[in-house]
Write a structure and sequence with these properties.
The protein is of the alpha+beta class and 605 residues long. The chain contains 14 helices and 25 strands. Among the domains are: 1-68 and 567-605, no CATH class; 103-160 and 316-538, no CATH class.
Length: 605
Amino acid sequence: MGIFDALGVGYSGLSTSQTGIQTTSHNISNINTPGYSRQRVEQKASYPLDTASGELGTGVKAQEIVRLHDEFVYGRLKSANASLSFSEFSESTLKEISDGLTDLENKGIANDLNDFFSSWSKLAQYPQDEASKLEVINGMDRLAKDLNTTRTKLTKIQDRMNSELSDSVEKINDLAKNIVDLNKQINKIENVPHQHANDLRDRRDRLELDLAKIVNISVYKGDAIINGKVMQTDAGNGYNINIAGHNIVDGVTFHPLELAPADQSTPYQSVYYTDHNQVKTDITDKLRGGKIGAILDLRGNGYDTAAQKPLNSKIQSYIDKFDAFAKTMIQKSNSLYGSVGQDHIQTDAIEGVKSDTKLAQLPDLNSGSFDVVVYNNIGDIVARRAVTLDENTTLQSITDAINANQDDNGDNDATNDLDDLFSASLSADGDVLHIDPKNGAGEYRIAIEDNGTNFAGWSGVNKLFEGSNAKDIHVKPEILHNPSQLAASKAGVDGSADLATEMVDLQYEKLGFETADGSKTRQTLSEYYRYTATTIAQDANSASVAKDSAELLTKTVTEQMQATSGVDMDEELMNLMKYQTAYQASAKIITTVDQMINTLLGMKQ
């Protein structure tokens, strides 16, 4: 080994120290850069020279510059961020819904319900008072409109989820496309041995994290040995991103997700994956986690075209509960109001029901009986006939029972029974029941008093409310615009308030509620509303607790990640001093060798 070789040793130390200083400076400059992983120079002794005295070192070289990154911890960070994004979106949306149900300043459905029964109680005390009747009608109108408004708000939020889904899928495609572009740059750089695209990998990891916030992803980057241990790292050229079992990124190939309705009758969009053979697969019900997971949990991940509503939807479950509340409110109120005498009876046209349809098989009807009651013009009951509703009952059998020649009063008088005064018939389609007075029968009024079958409320014999759910419930227009038509008594007799009293007692009665999924319960109207509002509030609270837990987990994992990848200013300053000292020492070597060379040259002279 000659003297000039010693000069090379000094230069190698100088060059390597300069690389270390530059890398350390890069770390310090990026101390506040989000997602930056600190970098380190991996030094290696150069190959020695064989001499008579033994192997003689030839210096040092900076073999590669690596970033300090733990892919296992980073995977946990992506998972934690997915959970946090899911819970944050769920919490904000559910809080919006829950806050809309808060009864403040004498407003809200709970207050409307109290006013409804209070106004009937007042009418029971003053049955002929027009102001009391108007108060009842205004209370019914407020209750109906607040139910309409609440359901409309829920539907709008549900529809908004569809727009949120569209925006999220678009963001996924943008992120995936950018990742593919980065993969091309990374591959180009890392095709050279010992070259690492550290900053580009940081940018790609940042995009992965953004992607994980939108939906659960699985990322494969290959296996490598780090510090003597086989662990999952970002080394290697193998790379793909998998969503719901499908690779949207295969190295430098990108498969975009698409949005489209499942069919023409479906208003909500589904998410589709298209493979390299252009085969589309609906992956909506397989998407989990992140913002999209929360969106689908709230909106629903499918659509029932027959029922025209989303499937597996938290918001839809709330809508169903309000619909069940409104339906029971409508039918039970109308069932009681069906006991008010009127000139004739005409039921609604009942969809799917014909003259021979077995009524006991239909929802909302119960086995039992109801009474057909006839009042005279002074309010006395002239006739009462019980009609049984069992497994064989049809509209035709009800018609026959009303028309049957029988002595309702047991007085052997053939002129004062139900069939003597009224006649029942069915429409041509067999879906409407008519009960009309017979010619020359005189002034009589007819009513139906229900004994638990719900026939009067189900068929619309006489109505306070019209509609079938929270969307379309409204006060019967004839009553709304003419309060004097509101009855306080069944027989229409001045001073009587038996109907109003029964309406007041309705607030204490355990009623049946059934949601669209078949869930049933028996509660009072107030209890069921509180149950519905409490369910929503509890869901919002659970989402808030989940968000707090996810925030704590994300903070913990972020700290773990920073312990490996974060820039520590004190450590970097120490490294800077270390490299500076090494640089000065290497420069001293070169100066010394230079002096030696000058000495040799001087000897020659």
